[in-house]
Amino acid sequence: MPPRHVRTLAATVAAACLALGAAGTALATNHPAPARPAVAATAPAPTSLGSNWYAAAPYLMPLDNDPPDAGAVMDATGLKAFQLAFVLAPNGGGCSPTWDGLHPVASDTAVAGVISAIRAKGGDVSASIGGYNGTKLGQACGTPEATAAAYQQVIDKYGLKALDFDLEEPEYENTAAIHNEIGAAKILQQKNPGLYLSVTTAGTADGTGWFGKQMLNEAKSQSFVPDNFSIMPFDGGFTGAAAQTSALTNFNAVLRSTFGWDEATAYAHEGISQMNGRSDTGEFFTQADFQTVLDFATSHHMARFTNWSVNRDRQCTPPDNNGRTSGTCSSVPQGAWDFTKFSVKFAGATPPTTPPTTPPTTPTGGSCAASPYSAGTVYVGGDTVSAGGHTWKARWWTQGEAPSTGGSGVWQDLGAC
């Protein structure tokens, strides 16, 4: 799975700048966090929220990717919970929690200030562990117990009632690290009664890939069951909502075969994390796609509905940004916080309707005449498909390889539609 650079590039660049002692040119996805007044080192106790809000909390980077004012988002959408990202091991090594590998949790006041502001408005947060890049605590800490102790520091620091384990590349390819992460999650579940736990991993057309299935097997071997297992069906050749709901159906079968659940029980432990707007690989997910997936999730009584990210839930300036994926905007036409409002609906609340917005349904870059790519279809030389706003032509027989300029070279990019 290709890297989701808009999620983690800023932390990587920051670490490099620290190591070199040089000031780099600012990147589109690396905006400095706005200055905040001094606050207490710990956040106040959270308001009592139902698990439906933790299940609907979209991701927010509080220290990077031009973080929006959380309170303003709450006022505009009715949202009550955010998923703060990401807790990692220190870039310089060690088994202590940091934000983005750079900012120690122990001495933090900035994130505590964000949490305080959210709680002052009746909301709360969950903290997300891991993500695509950086060193994870499951890799740096030698045992499940040591890993759990590091995460317990985060829970205690902020009085958390929810935690998300985002287990993906490259960590989930490390069996020892995944053993530590799942073991830590089980320990935290036992030590913190009522703690809401989600486990998020990569999505593929058949639900999740080999490493995702191995992670589920590890959870089964440790008799660990979180509130949900969620997949991220993007950056893998997905074309709109139909491909995502198909992956969710297939993931349900994976959960059933792994844990011996029936269909309804599996859906009650299944979640989705989407990417709003343009993905890293040029897929487009519009407001209409989110509505379709929301309808699927609610009709199947799924356990979680979230997305990456609130930082991206606004229109780019200038609005035509079909050629790039940004960490600070969606690259599709939209009103501010259009995608966040779907989380509010999933939580069972009604988003505010003022000011009114009309969500556009056509992704920037126009419509494609060729049929959308399907992973299960056999294509032969000369066949054309559409994917990511581009038309692609097969050079020879292929099945299951999503259109891209890499891979085996079977696909020729004919340009934007």
Describe the structure.
By secondary structure, the chain is an alpha/beta fold. It contains twelve helices and 15 strands. The strands form three sheets. Strands 1, 2, 3, 4, 5, 6, 7, 8, 9 and 12 form a ten-stranded mixed beta sheet that branches. A three-stranded antiparallel beta sheet has the order 13-14-15, with no helix packed on it. α6 (144-158) packs across α7 and α7 (175-191) crosses α8 (210-221). It is globular and about 60 Å long.
Features:
3-stranded antiparallel sheet, alpha/beta
How is the biggest beta sheet arranged? 10 strands, mixed
Helix count equals: 12
Percent range of helical residues: 25-40%
Q: What distance separates the N and C termini?
A: 25 Å
Order of helices and strands: HHEHEEEHEHHEHEHEHHEEEHEHEEE
What is the alpha-carbon Rg in Å? Answer: 21 Å
What class would the helix/strand composition place it in?
Answer: alpha/beta
How many beta-strand segments?
15
Share of β-strand residues: 15-25%
Q: What general form does the structure show?
A: globular
In terms of per-residue confidence, which ranges show pLDDT below 50 for 5 or more consecutive residues? Answer: 8-40, 356-366
* Mean of residue pLDDT values: 87
